[in-house]
Specification:
- With 254 residues, this protein is an alpha/beta fold.
- It has a single domain, classed as 2-enoyl-CoA Hydratase, Chain A, domain 1 (Alpha-Beta Complex).
- The chain is 51% helix and 17% strand.
- The strands form two sheets. Strands 1-2-3-5-7-10 form a six-stranded mixed β-sheet, sandwiched between helices. Strands 4-6-8-9 form a four-stranded mixed β-sheet.
- The longest helix is centred in the C-terminal third of the chain and has 18 residues.
- GO terms for molecular function: delta(3)-delta(2)-enoyl-CoA isomerase activity.
Length: 254
């Protein structure tokens, strides 16, 4: 589910659920949260790099798991692993680098708002399909994306449910560097290693100082998004979209 490796004070954490395009189910939420907690407490780790195995970085929330959930439980109350992962991303004290190797959908895109550096493969694409699923955004993306890339770029990504190319992400400021596929991990690791060569206490201080002014606003956005998700998940538009997803999957598997 996750592959871990550490070299030169850089911990690489690879999503390894390729059969589901690295979509987050409850187990992967918890495994990723645990990986962040472990890296945060390990003095031999200065920087974490997140990437994906196969042709996807992360396909967001597992829609089959969303479809199978108990509808009597509010969505954000039931998604304990999601809440725990986001809390750990908000509180993660060390530099976080994302190397987007392939498609990134939903949470695969919105978690980039927590990254300190984002590298993308030229073959990677991003999409936030919230409106096409009849739901609200998540992961405090309604605050983080406007702060990072401006209101209009964020509005397009969060409202349109359309794909964003690596070049578009770079122009918006959502990606820092775009690399050919074979160069993605060497490039991301090179920059991570250069950061990791600096004193850890200084890296932590810089990240703390940059993040502290935004912490309350991030949590407020997250609370509002969760309330909207609880209202919309299981509603008519969401149910229609999920049923369409299930029908398309069944057709492919025949």
């Amino acid at each position: 589910m996750l592959i871990h490796s550490t070299d030169k004070r850089v911990r690489t954490v690879t999503f390894d659920r390729a059969e589901a395009m690295n979509a987050f189910n409850e187990a992967l939420y918890h495994a990723t949260a645990d990986a962040l907690l472990d890296a945060a407490s390990d003095d031999d780790v200065a920087v974490v790099v997140l990437t994906g195995q196969g042709r996807a970085f992360c396909a967001g929330t597992d829609l089959q798991e969303m479809l199978d959930r108990d509808p009597s439980i509010p969505f954000t109350e039931g998604a304990h692993g999601f809440r725990r992962l986001i809390d750990n991303l908000i509180d993660f004290p060390k530099p976080l680098v994302c190397a987007v190797n392939g498609i990134a959908v939903g949470l695969g895109t919105t978690l980039l708002g927590y990254a300190d550096l984002v590298f993308m493969s030229t073959s990677a694409r991003l999409k936030c399909p919230f409106t096409s699923l009849g739901i609200a955004p998540e992961a405090a993306s309604t605050y983080l994306l406007p702060e990072l890339i401006g209101r209009q770029n964020a509005a397009w990504i969060l409202m349109s449910s359309e794909w964003i190319s690596a070049e578009e992400a770079l122009a918006m400021g959502l990606a820092w560097k775009v690399c050919e596929p074979a160069e993605l991990m060497p490039t991301a690791f090179d920059y991570a290693e250069r950061l990791a060569a600096q004193p850890l206490e200084s890296l932590v201080a810089v990240k703390q100082a940059m993040g502290a002014p935004h912490a309350a606003d991030i949590r407020a956005a997250l609370a509002l998004e969760n309330a909207l998700l609880d209202r919309l998940v299981g509603g008519p538009a969401n149910t229609q979209a999920l049923n369409g997803f299930a029908a398309a999957r069944a057709s492919r598997e025949r």
